[in-house]
Specification:
Layout: E1 7-8, E2 11-12, H1 13-44, H2 47-50, H3 56-67, H4 72-87, H5 90-121, H6 128-151, H7 160-188, H8 198-218, H9 227-241, H10 253-276, H11 282-289, E3 291-292, H12 313-334, H13 341-367, E4 372-373, H14 375-402, H15 408-431, H16 438-458, H17 460-467
Parallel strand pairs: 3-4
Antiparallel strand pairs: 1-2
Helix pairs in contact: 1-4, 1-6, 1-7, 1-8, 4-6, 4-15, 5-6, 5-8, 5-15, 6-15, 7-8, 7-12, 7-14, 10-14, 10-15, 10-16, 10-17, 12-14, 13-14, 13-16, 14-15
Length: about 500
C-alpha cells in the first residue's frame, strides 16, 4: 500500500524532513564558520604551524600582493570572505547539473557526502586548503537543491509557501544556534598546554552532516518529485500514449521579465550579505577581544563565555522571532495588507542598517579604551536577525514562485550567487575594522545597508511590474503527481 501524504503543523510532512536535513547541514556549515577566522588568525598564522600547511605562504603572498600587508586578523578576514563566497558560487553549477542531469534529490545526497568528508579533512592542518575546496564543492551540490524542494511541496498560489520558507529558515538557524555552542566550544577547549582542540570542532561538524544525510535518505518518500523525476515520468507517459517529439519552447516575455527582476534583486542583495556576514569575521573578532564576556558578572560569577557563542545569538533570535513574524504576516494577509516580497526585502535592508547604528554606541565605548558590554552585540543581533527574516527566506520563496520551472535550481543558484559576491565583500569590508575607529566602521556598514534599502524602494514599481502576480506563474512544465503523494494537489509549483 502506498504511503499517504500527511501534514504536520499545517504543512506537508516533507517540510519537516527538509527542515531537519537543512538544520544538520547548517550545523556543519556554521560550525566551520564559527571557527574559521579564529582558526586562521590564532592557529594557522603561527610561525611554528604555517610552515606545515601546504600553500599557506603562497596564498598569503597572493592576497597581500593585491591588498598590501595584512595582519593576522585581516588575513583571516580575507580567507573567511573567500571561503564563504565560493560556498555560494558553486550552487549555480550544482543547480544546472541538478536541473539537466541528476535531479535535486541525488544532488543533495552527493553534496552531503562530500561535505562530511571535507569536515573530517579539516581535522588535519596540512589538509586545510584541500578540505576547504572539498567543502565548497559539496555545498555546490547541496545548497540550491535542498531549498528548491521546499517550493515543490506546495501548489501554485498556495499561501503557505512564504511561511513554509520561514519555518525552513528556522531549521537553518537552529543548526546555526547549536553549532557555535558545540563545535565552537569543542574547538576552543584548551588542553593543559593552552592549545585549542580545533580538530574536535571540525570533526563534530562532520558528524552533524552525516546525521542530516541519514534523515534525508529516510524521508525520501515524503518529498515531492524533482524536475528530472517529473521529466522521466512525463516521457514515459508520452511514449506509452503516442510517439511525439516535444519542442523546447523559448521563454515567454513574462518569464524573461521575471528572470530580469530576480537578477536585479540578486545584485541588490550583494551589499546586504556583505554587511550581514560581518557576524563571522569582524563581529566575531570584536566579541573575542573587545567585548566583556563575563556575562554572569551580575551574579558574582567570574565565568567567561567562549567568544564563538556570540554566533548562536542570531539562531536564537531567528527561532523566537519567526514564531512572531509568521502569525503577523498571516494576519496581514487576511487583512489584504501583506507587503509584497520586494517591500519585505527593502524592510530587511533598513533593519540591517539600524542594527549597525546600534553598534556605534558600543564602538564609542571601545574607542575610549574600554571593553564594551556584550549587550551591544545582543541588540545588534536582534535587529539584524529581524532584517534577515524579512529578506532571506522571502527571497528564497520568491525564486520558487516566479522562476521558470525548467531552470528553477539554476535560478536558485543565481540567488546564492549574490551571496558569493556579498560574502567576499564581507571579508574585504572586515579588513577596515582595523583601519578605522570602531564607531566609524559601524557607521560605514549601516550606510551601505540603508542605501541598499532606499534603492529597492526606488526600483519598487518597475520590479513589481516585472514580477506581476507572485502566485500566478506561467508553468511551462507542469509536474506530475507521484503515486504516494496523491493527497497533494497535482499542480505543483
Amino acid at each position: 500500500m502506498q504511503a499517504r501524504e500527511r501534514e504536520l503543523f499545517g504543512h506537508p510532512i516533507g517540510l519537516t524532513i527538509l527542515f531537519l536535513t537543512e538544520m544538520w547541514e547548517r550545523f556543519c556549515f556554521y560550525g566551520m564558520r564559527a571557527l574559521l577566522a579564529l582558526y586562521v588568525a590564532h592557529r594557522l598564522s603561527r610561525p611554528d604551524v604555517s610552515g606545515g600547511v601546504p600553500g599557506f605562504f603562497a596564498v598569503r603572498h597572493a592576497i597581500e600582493a593585491v591588498f598590501g600587508h595584512l595582519d593576522d586578523e585581516q588575513f583571516a578576514d580575507q580567507i573567511y570572505g573567500l571561503y564563504t563566497a565560493f560556498v555560494y558560487l558553486t550552487p549555480v553549477f550544482g543547480g544546472i547539473l541538478a536541473d539537466r542531469l541528476i535531479g535535486q534529490r541525488k544532488s543533495v545526497i552527493i553534496g552531503g557526502v562530500i561535505m562530511a568528508i571535507g569536515e573530517f579533512m579539516m581535522m588535519k592542518e596540512a589538509l586545510f586548503f584541500p578540505a576547504m575546496l572539498t567543502l565548497i564543492i559539496g555545498n555546490g551540490f547541496f545548497k540550491s537543491n535542498i531549498s528548491t524542494q521546499v517550493g515543490n511541496l506546495y501548489g501554485k498560489g498556495d499561501a503557505r509557501r512564504d511561511r513554509a520558507f520561514n519555518v525552513f529558515y528556522v531549521g537553518i538557524n537552529i543548526g546555526g544556534l547549536l553549532s557555535p555552542l558545540i563545535c565552537g566550544t569543542l574547538g576552543q577547549t584548551k588542553d593543559a598546554a593552552g592549545n585549542e582542540h580545533w580538530a574536535w570542532g571540525f570533526g563534530s561538524a562532520g558528524v552533524g552532516m552525516i546525521i542530516g544525510l541519514c534523515l534525508y535518505l529516510w524521508g525520501q518518500r515524503y518529498l515531492a518529485a524533482d524536475l528530472v523525476m517529473q521529466k522521466s515520468a512525463n516521457a514515459s507517459a508520452a511514449a506509452a500514449s503516442a510517439p511525439a517529439t516535444k519542442e523546447k519552447k523559448p521563454f515567454t516575455k513574462g518569464e524573461l521579465a521575471r528572470i530580469v527582476a530576480l537578477v536585479v534583486l540578486c545584485a541588490l542583495n550583494i551589499s546586504f550579505w556583505g554587511v550581514y556576514e560581518q557576524q563571522g569575521n569582524s563581529l566575531q573578532f570584536w566579541a573575542d577581544g573587545k567585548a566583556d564576556l563575563h556575562v554572569l558578572a551580575f551574579l558574582g560569577s567570574s565565568w567567561e563565555m567562549p567568544s564563538t557563542w556570540f554566533q548562536s545569538i542570531n539562531g536564537i533570535f531567528i527561532f523566537l522571532l519567526t514564531f512572531l513574524v509568521n502569525p503577523f504576516w498571516a494576519w496581514l494577509q487576511k487583512k489584504g495588507k501583506d507587503p509584497s516580497s520586494v517591500a519585505k526585502m527593502a524592510i530587511g535592508c533598513f533593519l540591517l542598517g539600524f542594527s549597525f547604528l546600534v553598534m556605534i554606541g558600543g564602538g564609542h565605548v571601545v574607542d575610549s579604551g574600554q571593553k564594551a558590554s556584550f549587550g551591544w552585540l545582543v541588540g545588534c543581533s536582534f535587529l539584524l536577525t529581524l532584517g534577515e527574516i524579512y529578506l532571506s527566506p522571502v527571497g528564497l520563496s520568491l525564486v520558487t514562485k516566479i522562476a521558470p520551472p525548467r531552470i528553477l535550481s539554476m535560478m536558485m543558484g543565481m540567488w546564492f550567487l549574490s551571496s558569493f559576491f556579498g560574502n567576499y565583500a564581507s571579508g574585504y569590508l572586515a579588513t577596515w575594522s582595523n583601519r578605522m575607529s570602531n564607531s566609524s566602521f559601524f557607521l560605514l556598514l549601516a550606510t551601505i545597508s540603508l542605501v541598499t534599502g532606499a534603492l529597492m524602494i526606488v526600483l519598487y514599481i518597475p520590479l513589481k511590474r516585472a514580477i506581476g502576480d507572485e502566485n500566478a506563474r506561467e508553468d511551462d512544465n507542469p509536474p506530475i503527481e507521484p503515486p504516494h503523494e496523491r493527497e497533494l494537489t497535482a499542480d505543483r509549483a
